[in-house]
Amino acid sequence: MTVFPGLCKGCGYCIVKCPRQCITWSEALGIYGTPTVTVEGDKCILCQSCALVCPDCAIEVTYIPRPKRKKKYFD
């Protein structure tokens, strides 16, 4: 998940819409001098609710699959 602070105007829609409550206010200021958001990546379930509700397209959710694990067979 990527947040673009230069595009975030600090509306807070993503914070309200997140089902896991993993988006919070950041210390960084956005383009309008308002606080931007930050994401706790380990809580995020990649539902994309935040990206869909963001009026400024300041959030991008990209799924990157983990490498396939090799199965270990025991004798």
UniProtKB/TrEMBL annotation:
Annotated Gene3D superfamilies: 3.30.70.20
InterPro entries: 4Fe4S_Fe-S-bd (IPR017896), 4Fe4S_Fe_S_CS (IPR017900)
Pfam family, one: Fer4_7
Keyword Metal-binding: yes
Entry superkingdom: Bacteria
Residue span, 4Fe-4S ferredoxin-type domain: 1-28, 35-64
PANTHER family assigned: FERREDOXIN SUBUNIT OF PYRUVATE:FLAVODOXIN OXIDOREDUCTASE, FERREDOXIN SUBUNIT OF PYRUVATE:FLAVODOXIN OXIDOREDUCTASE-RELATED
UniProt name for this protein: 4Fe-4S ferredoxin
